[in-house]
Amino acid sequence: xxxxxxxxxxxxxxxxxxxxxxxxxxxxxxxxxxxxxxxxxxxxxxxxxxxxxxxxxxxxxxxxxxxxxxxxxxxxxxxxxxxxxxxxxxxxxxxxxxxxxxxxxxxxxxxxxxxxxxxxxxxxxxxxxxxxxxxxxxxxxxxxxxxxxxxxxxxxxxxxxxxxxxxxxxxxxxxxxxxxxxxxxxxxxxxxxxxxxxxxxxxxxxxxxxxxxxxxxxxxxxxxxxxxxxxxxxxxxxxxxxxxxxxxxxxxx
Amino acid sequence: xxxxxxxxxxxxxxxxxxxxxxxxxxxxxxxxxxxxxxxxxxxxxxxxxxxxxxxxxxxxxxxxxxxxxxxxxxxxxxxxxxxxxxxxxxxxxxxxxxxxxxxxxxxxxxxxxxxxxxxxxxxxxxxxxxxxxxxxxxxxxxxxxxxxxxxxxxxxxxxxxxxxxxxxxxxxxxxxxxxxxxxxxxxxxxxxxxxxxxxxxxxxxxxxxxxxxxxxxxxxxxxxxxxxxxxxxxxxxxxxxxxxxxxxxxxxxxxxxxxxxxxxxxxxxxxxxxxxxxxxxxxxxxxxxxxxxxxxxxxxxxxxxxxxxxxxxxxxxxxxxxxxxxxxxxxxxxxxxxxxxxxxxxxxxxxxxxxxxxxxxxxxxxxxxxxxxxxxxxxxxxxx
Lengths: 253, 384
What we know:
Chain A is of the alpha/beta class. Chain A has ten helices and ten strands. Chain B has a two-stranded antiparallel sheet.
């Protein structure tokens, strides 16, 4: 299938090495290497078409790599199926809020609760006190405790984004990947989301794609700048901002 | 606070129990009192279609997997039962004028001199009952695994199931010596010595069908009330989100497809018992599409709606085709278009919009806290 995984075992939570994917000859991600520490918040920025979302797709198994290796807690992810990667501890939020509109907020969170994931397990799953308490706890975290019995389609755009974040949180992933979590939010919602993110990043690593520079400066420990599928700069926000290439391809306009 | 309100201790709410009881009374008390034996036997036939419709509610309505091949499973269930009955009807005494006595008549006509190996186990009633459910479920498992593991879905899946229905019909018609060909298996007489052609037997079989249908309905309610039921709906809505929540989506699709197949097969077996024959005309493309229409008219997201849909459409079919035989197909087509365009949730949708709220008002009940009943305007204050 893929080239033999070659990444070395490191202490990093996530180590991506030599990752390449080409769509009909076009290299969307080109020999990319990226290391994310435990408890680190890494923000990926870059112009449109830089391959940011593709990198997340590759890590969570939605797109298969042409070459290279992705190691998560010493486990090779490139050969695993999507649901196995999730069970290993990688959570992914999509760019557009991806929630179950026909189900209630409670049910949305309950489905994401990491128990009863087999067919038989789901049939026998009991909504016991532990589950309820956990759903309540998460609902409060994402400001939705008053809407538990509401069908998710009636939530506002910002609330849908929070719900999806909540659906990831309830799985307690070691690595949380967020694709533009504040896109399309009002100023108030954006502020609340920044607070929310600050709270939920405890004891986990977060990989965020974001265009909002104010927001990036608020949360990022380290920033990776992608351009045409390659890393062109990496480091603190202050450092990256000074980089002439970054200014040229991204920050300049 | 409000979270505990959604917790159900039992999988049927009081309302569900009442609705299922009403169905039971309608089919097991009202119909037997209102109809003569001939009509009741017809209703019994419709009841067997309702099994398929219930399966489709789960497979199509809940999980969004449109199968245009439920006739396959209805047919296999029916044929399995017919094979048992045919063997019993083909005792050496009954068939002594044949050149090979003791085998079904159509085999003799097709120059077969011994019973084929796959017919042998159908001497046993226990095996037959097992096969009625297991063979269709197994076939559904194979088709399901082949399709869903490769992420074939939507229209492609519908077309492929349709192709399977066509293939099976051609196979049955072509292998006349083994299957009875286009005539099917006719002249079925007794079930373990009990003559199923008498009025009394038909009466009893009608009630057995009703009980089995209620059983399937309750089972469907149980599955839909479980977390699996909600996962099916979630999959219909956002398949990727389910996959990226740690579920193997294909497994769930295979499960619900097999379940729908098993329901259809039970219906098929009861059909054979009540009608007294099975033929390829209940296997192929046309019956498969008719099953989908039954489900759509009744309401593809409502188990009980689909049952009533199956009954009503077939009542209409019988009545109309008695008076205007050539108009029925046009009527059916018009009905399907009307459902799709005007009321996509079928009879159940009409009931939910128009009748249910009135009943609640009549009984003086405030609308209970039902999912999604709160209009969006009332919750804006918390977002700011």
